[in-house]
C-alpha cells in the first residue's frame, strides 16, 4: 500500500497542533489548579507534558515513515526538501528514536510514584531534592540507549539499502538517495547471497527488548500493588477528599498506560519482532507511523479530564464554547488544611 506524503503530513501537523495545545493547557492547569496534596507529582506531570511536546516537534521535523519489509524493520526520513546535510538528518532521525526510548521509563516512574504515595511509608522522600534529579535522568538514559542503537547498530549500509530499495519506492515513492534511515536487517545475504542471521543486529534487538521489558515489568507490578492499596484505602476510614483524589489519579494513570500500550508499544513491539521470525506484516505496518505521531497528542487527555479540579478548570477556560455552565466543584478547602502531602 503506497502511503501519501500529503496524508502523512496532515496527520503529523494535526498531532503537533494537538500535542502543543493540550500539553500547554495541562501544564497551566497543573501549575494553577493542582490540589495541594499532589506534591512533587505535579513536577513529574510537567516533565512528562514537556517531553510530549518535544516529541511532537521532533516527529514533525523528521516526518518519519515506520515500516517493515521481510526480515527488516526501519524508520525512514525523506531528504527531498531537507535544507541541511544528510548527516544532520541522520542525527535528527536518531534523536527521534531516542525520544521513543524515554517513554517507557517515564510511565514506569509515574507508577512507582503512585505506589509510594498509596503505600504511606515515607518513601516519597525519594522523589524530592537530589533524588528527583536522579528520577529525571533515568528516562533520559533510556533515550540515550535508543539513540545509541539507531546511530551505531542501525546506520545506513549497502546491504540494507539494497534490501529495502524496492519497498521504499513502492510504498513511499522515494529513491534511496533521497532518504536517511535507521534499519535492522536480521538476515542480510552473505557473499553467496544466502540470508544469514546477523548476531550484531540480534544483540541490538535484545537490548531494545530489555529496555521495553524492564519498565513494563515495573508498570505491571506497581500497578497491581497500587490497585490493592486503592481498594484498602476506599474500604477503610480515609477522608473522602483523599480517597477521591487518589482514585482519580490512579484511573488517569491506568488510562495513560493503555494509550502508550496500544498506540506505541504494541505496534512497535510487533514491528520489531515480526521480521526476526519471518512474519510478513508489511501490508499494515504503515499504521505504526500514524500511531507513533498520535501518541504525544492524546497522552495529556486522561489526567486533564479524570482529575476533577483540572476537568472543571478546563471547562471554565472553554466555557464560551459550551451551551451550559459546568457544575461547580464542592468547596474542599477544609479538606486541604491539615492534609499530609501525598
Characterization of the model:
The protein has 342 residues and is mainly α. It has one domain: Rhopdopsin 7-helix transmembrane proteins, CATH 1.20.1070.10. Helices cover 66% and strands 6% of the residues. The protein has eleven helices and three strands. The chain has helices at 5-33, 41-62, 86-119, 130-153, 158-172, 199-235, 240-273, 287-298, 301-306, 308-317, 333-336; strands at residues 65-69, 72-78, 179-185. The chain has a three-stranded antiparallel beta sheet with strand order 1-2-3. α2 runs antiparallel to α3. It is elongated. 36% of the residues are buried.
Quick take:
Helices cover 66% and strands 6% of the residues.
Task: From the structure above, extract its key features.
6% strand; 66% helix; disordered C terminus; 11 helices; three-stranded antiparallel sheet; 342 residues; Rhopdopsin 7-helix transmembrane proteins; mainly alpha
Instruction: Work out the helicity level.
Output: 55-70%
Second CATH tier, the architecture: Up-down Bundle
Q: pLDDT under 50 segments (min length 5)?
A: 324-342
Structural class by secondary-structure content: mainly alpha
> What's the CATH superfamily, by name?
Rhodopsin 7-helix transmembrane proteins
The biggest sheet amounts to: 3 strands, antiparallel
Number of helices: 11
Q: Could you give the count of β-strands?
A: 3
From the structure provided, what is the oligomeric state, counting identical versus distinct chains? single chain
SSE sequence, one letter per element: HHEEHHHEHHHHHH
Inertia-based shape = elongated
Write down the overall mean pLDDT: 85
Distance between the termini: 51 Å
Strand content: 5-15%
Spatial strand order of the main sheet: 1-2-3
